[in-house]
Amino acid sequence: MKKIYLLSTILLSAVVLAQDITFSGCTNLFGTANYLFTKETNPDTYGKRIYVTSPVTGDQPCGGLGTCEFKIQWNNSLSRWEFLADEGDGTFTSPYLIYYNSTGNSTAPNPPSNNVGTWVENTSVTEGACGGNLTTSNSNFSGDVHTTTLAVDETNSGKALLFPNPVVDNIGIQGIGNAKEYQIVGMSGQIIRSSKFENKINVKDLESGVYQLIIITGDSKTHQFRFIKK
């Protein structure tokens, strides 16, 4: 396979917003450019955030793979985060897998940094031109990424509290600072509800069963609780 050459450079603003991810690495293929990934408005059906370089138009002239655009998203069937390169027309219909990480915190809504788990180079596409897996010495991967392999789950630590459990109508939550949003996930892994955080959450309309409540803070940490709806 021919080597990949990217001829475009994505200019970054002086201040990177928390919802963005910046990346530089694999310089043999991507050059020394810094790439800006912007978080899409809506997460996927599993509550995972999606990040795409902008603009996605498919008309930037590039050699090799013919792509100037990238996407970071969760692959639920393989339980891993993926770093994808567009096939050249801006649709990501048949993207190229450049890196993947299946050893980071799979419960987090955002991808791991380059020092969490292992971002594995997909040499079947890159032919080893990226020089190996992503590390802090060969890449920069910062912004809206999580930096620990463990989810923040303080259910039994005495710091965070969910009550009552089992629950009929309303769940109360105490002990979590800077909470921003919450998700209720069914046992199948599908997100049933995603909304702005409240200290009291009405679950009266849920069917009886077991659910997971995920609370996400402003610094992208997660608190997870399992509860039973009567």
| Oligomeric state of the chains present here | single chain
How many structural domains in the coordinates?
2
Q: Total helix count? A: 2
The end-to-end span amounts to 57 Å
The sequence of SSEs as H and E is EHEEEEEEHEEEEEEEE
Number of strands: 15
Strand order of the largest sheet: 7-6-5-4-3-2-1-8
- Output the radius of gyration: 20 Å
Unreliable stretches covering 5 or more consecutive residues: 1-18, 60-65, 150-158
Portion in beta strands: 35-45%
Structural class: mainly beta
Binned, the helix content reads under 10%
**Mean model confidence by pLDDT:** 78
Main beta-sheet annotation: 8 strands, antiparallel
Question: Shape, please?
Answer: elongated
Pfam family, one: Por_Secre_tail
Organism: Epilithonimonas zeae
Protein name: Por secretion system C-terminal sorting domain-containing protein
InterPro entries: Secre_tail
Précis, in short:
The chain has 230 residues and is mainly beta. It is 3% helix and 35% strand.
Could you describe the 3D structure shown?
The chain has 230 residues and is mostly beta strands. It has 2 domains: 17-150, no CATH class; 161-229, Immunoglobulin-like (Sandwich), CATH 2.60.40. The chain is 3% helix and 35% strand. It has an 8-stranded antiparallel beta sheet. Strands 12-11-14-15 form a 4-stranded antiparallel beta sheet, with no helix packed on it. The chain has a 3-stranded antiparallel beta sheet with strand order 9-10-13, with no helix packed on it. The relative contact order is 0.15.
